[in-house]
Amino acid sequence: MHKNIEMKNYISCLIVVILSLLSSFANAESHKHDFTVQETSVTRLCRTKKIITVNGQFPGPTLTVRNGDTVIVNVVNRARYNVTIHWHGVRQMRTPWADGPEYVTQCPIRPGGSYTYRFTIENQEGTLWWHAHSKWLRATVYGALVILPKQGSNFPFSLPQKDFPVILGEWWNRDIIAVQRQAQFTGAAPNNSDAYTINGQPGDLYRCSTQGTVKYSVNPGESVLLRVINAALNQQLFFSVANHMLTVVGIDATYNKPFTTNVIMVGPGQTTNVILTANQSPGRYYMAARAYATVRNGQFDNTTTTAILEYKNLKSGANSRPLLPRLPAFNDTATATAFANRLRGTPNSNRVPNQIDENLFFTVGLGLVNCTRGPRCQGPNNTRFAASVNNISFVIPRRTSLLQAYYQKTPGIYTLDFPRVPPVQFDYTGNVSRGLWQPRFGTKLYKLKFGSNVQIVLQDTAIFSTEDHPIHLHGYHFWVVGQGFGNFNAQTDTANFNLNDPPVRNTIDVPVGGWAVIRFVADNPGVWLLHCHIDSHLSWGLAMAFIVENGIGEKQTMEPPPPDLPQC
């Protein structure tokens, strides 16, 4: 009798699961897009020049999908440079071939070539973005990726009446590849950008820019969802809207416990969803962004980009100068820290692993390479800049991609001896001995077993200067269980970890002169890059990569490479 009841209950549960799955599949859609990478003439700051774009648009097209949808993007390269596209923050479950970093998960799409990226959005909602992941082309090759809830599901907050992407970027008057090549030749820091941009436009405060300034029109009383994306190549940014408070509701395509602030700090690669209510006197208000700069005595672009929040049907003052928000000082670490400390995850996002299988400690920071005085030795005191993780400056291969080498078991491309802790322990944020300034170079990977619980301490270093580093992990999001200043102390700092409601991110700003601790479950097989999202630092070697082994069965095994995967 009991067995019959148990069997009926089992069958009933099975039917519910099957119907739920069928409903999910029925609501999911396939989105097909065509990207043509090409040269396009644009005019900014009184100059007309050619830049690399997608479909002639700058920024590129916004892709709007739903959680559970499949995305298919055919990329044709009509530009003169090799190119790849990275879908920043997409988990890419079992589809590492679609992740996009050049020579990591694929060889580049050569001029005249094409490649189709295919992936499914799984359990992600909010704002992500896409960008080139080859050379510094992402300076102009980028766009928003908006992920709505599944059909029949809702936001965990009241539906806003308006929904706008706000993409923060950097603009150089010079050709960006020429800027990169000069920095790589001289060994010095790259030239600063000439402007910051909002949706590709510098805004009123720059020369020849008033006409193109982006305007967002709102009705009094409307709630507006601003999807703020930092697509800047090399700079963290503060963002604010004059006289309006911002309610933070999401970061990196995850929801957080809402809180209200007048300013946010967004690191390169990060996204922040905020809700603004148009509850001020009808008028014109600047939204503005400028640098949060932490390098000691470092040079940076100190200009301010603006767009205009404009109330509709203004009877007076339609052409008046908008109010400008008060942005924090460039080095206001206290404000950046206060913002980060208010971020808390929601109950649905928090299944933080307590038992750790892989306990890793990674130093991140710049270094200096000794060289002979001359045109190729123009870094500080006749050196060349380098950067490293655990004193290993990452060398990206050129013969094939790391993922292809792993899948095909090609020897001689990488080694599996990346150090789990720094080879030498030292006062990471104090006075560092000159003997530790110069890193070693190599293509060293670290292997993780499928399903292992991983903790990484990310520790800033004071070689050359302490600095806030936005560290991005491909193929994963992670819990940020702790942050602090100085050297991480496992004895005292572990007790203060937030294991109840930590925020979930794909890119974490490691505090200047401090540390951040992240945890994730290695549930996505493939080769996954971890790197600083400041592109000059990535070029200098501030990166490493994980190999996550297959688990058991099809759902824990990476898919085979697609037939059109580019060859090196």
Molecular structure report:
- With 568 residues, the protein is mainly β.
- Helices cover 11% and strands 37% of the residues.
- It has six helices and 32 strands.
- It has helices spanning 2-27, 176-186, 333-341, 402-408, 490-493, 535-540, and strands at 30-44, 47-54, 63-66, 70-77, 85-88, 114-120, 126-132, 142-148, 162-171, 195-198, 215-218, 223-230, 236-241, 246-251, 254-261, 264-266, 271-277, 284-292, 304-311, 358-370, 383-389, 392-394, 440-442, 445-448, 453-460, 469-473, 478-485, 504-505, 507-510, 514-521, 526-532, 543-548.
- The strands form seven sheets. Strands 10-9-12-17-14-15 form a six-stranded mixed beta sheet, with no helix packed on it. Strands 21-20-25-30-27-28 form a six-stranded mixed beta sheet. A five-stranded mixed beta sheet has the order 11-19-18-13-16.
- The model is unreliable at 1-26 (pLDDT under 50).
- Its cofactor is Cu cation.
- Residues 1-28 form the signal peptide.
- Keywords: Apoplast, Copper, Glycoprotein, Lignin degradation, Metal-binding, Oxidoreductase, Repeat, Secreted, Signal.
- It catalyses: 4 hydroquinone + O2 = 4 benzosemiquinone + 2 H2O.
Brief overview:
Residues 1-28 form the signal peptide. With 568 residues, this protein is mostly beta strands.
